[in-house]
Amino acid sequence: ETAEKAGFDHFMLKEIYEQPKAYRNTMMGRITDDGKSVVLKEIGMTAEQIRGIRKVHIVACGTAFHAGLVGKSVIENLARIPVETDVASEYRYRSPIITPDTLVIVVSQSGETADTLAALREAKRCGARVLAITNVVGSSVAREADDVMITQAGPEIAVASTKAYTSQLIAFYLLGLFLADTIGTRDAAYVSEVVAAMGELPEQVERILEHAEVLKQVAESLSKHNNLFFIGRGVDFAVAQEGSLKLKEISYIHSEAYAAGELKHGTLALIEEGIPVISVITQEDLYEKTLSNIKEVKARGAHVLALVNEGQEEEVGKSVDELFAIPKTLPLLAPALSVVPLQLIAYFASLARGNDVDKPRNLAKSVTVE
Ligand code: AGP
C-alpha cells in the first residue's frame, strides 16, 4: 500500500496531486490536432439525433451529482438545451418525464452505484438515449449505457472523490462544446477559445497545488470549529456544495452550502461571531452580488475566507478576513480550479482532527445497495 501511495501520506492527497495528469488524459484524443475543436468518437449519435435532443437529464449521486450541477450550467450555456439534474435516489421515484428525445446522462466514478444504475435502466425503459460518464471501463453503467465517455482519472482509492470529480468536469466541458458545435449554438472561434483555455487548466492546477501550505494553515484553524458555511452563486454555488460535502465526509465538521442570495431567507440567523464562512467568488457577472452577501455575513461577525480570481485580491480583500487566489480562466471553467483548494482544506482539516482520511467512518467507496 505504501508503494501505491507513491510517497504521499494518503491516497486522497496523491489523487489531488494527480489532477493535472487526469485533466490532460481526459482531454487527450478528444481535441483535434489543430487544438481548435472537440471530437467525441465515443458518442454514437448522428448529428441529426443530437439536433433532435429536446432536454437533458443529469442523474448521479454525491460528488458525481455535484459534477452534474456544473454540467447543467455548461450544457445550457453552450448548447442551449434545457437540463434537469437529479440525485439518482430520487429520480425514478418522482415519475420523471422521460421521452425518446431526452438525453439522460448518468455520472458515476465507479459505474456501480445502485441508484445510478437503476436510474439508467428506468431511462432506457422509457426509450431515452443514455450517455454514461464513468471512470471504470467495463463497469455496469458503462456496459448498459448507449454511449460512454470514460474519464481518464486512473484508479481512485480514497473514499473522498477528487480527481474523478474534476475529470467529470472536463468531460462535461468537452461534451458541452461538442453539442454546441454540432447544434450550431456556438461558432468555431468561441469553441477554439474555450479549448485553448482548457489546455491551460492542468498547469493552473499545478500552480494552486504549490500553495498547499497556506491552505493547510487555513484548515488547521477551521478544524477547531464544529459548524461552518460555504456560499457562492451560479457555478460557484455548485463548487460550494462539493467543498461542503468533501469537508463533512472526512473531517466530520458540520457544514452547509448555500446559494449566497438565499442567506437572507433563513440561514443568516445562524451566522454568529467567529463562525467560518467560505465564499467562492469567481464569476464576473455575479461578483458584486456575492460581495454584498459576504458583507452581510461579515457584519454579523463571520470569519470569511474568499476564493477569488487572481487580480481581485485587493478589492475583495477589503471585505474578508482571508483569501486565496486562483488563476484566471473563463468563468465556466473556474470550477475545475476553485474546487482544488477546497479539496486541500478538507484533507488538511481531516488530518488535523486525527481522522482516517482515506476511509472515513460509515462510508464506502462505492454504494452498491440502495
Ligand atoms: C465522494 O466524495 C463520495 N464519497 C460519494 O459522494 C460518491 O461521489 C458517490 O457515492 C457516487 O459514487 P460514484 O461516482 O462511484 O457513483
TrEMBL record:
Q: Would the keyword Repeat be found if you checked this record's keyword annotation? A: yes
Active site per database record: 365 (for fru-6p isomerization activity)
Keywords (A to Z) from UniProt: Aminotransferase, Cytoplasm, Glutamine amidotransferase, Repeat, Transferase
Q: Where in the cell is it found?
A: Cytoplasm
The catalytic activity, as recorded, is: D-fructose 6-phosphate + L-glutamine = D-glucosamine 6-phosphate + L-glutamate
A single GO BP:
UDP-N-acetylglucosamine metabolic process
**Is the keyword Repeat in the record?**
yes
Q: Record's superkingdom?
A: Bacteria
* UniProt-listed Enzyme Commission number(s): 2.6.1.16
Q: Which residues form the SIS domain?
A: 46-185, 218-360
GO CC field: cytosol
GO molecular function, a single term: glutamine-fructose-6-phosphate transaminase (isomerizing) activity
Role description: Catalyzes the first step in hexosamine metabolism, converting fructose-6P into glucosamine-6P using glutamine as a nitrogen source.
What assembly does the database describe for this protein? Answer: Homodimer.
- Protein name per Swiss-Prot or TrEMBL: Glutamine--fructose-6-phosphate aminotransferase [isomerizing]
User: What organism, scientifically named, is this protein from?
Assistant: Paenibacillus sacheonensis
Which region of the full protein is contained in this chain? 241 to 610 of 610
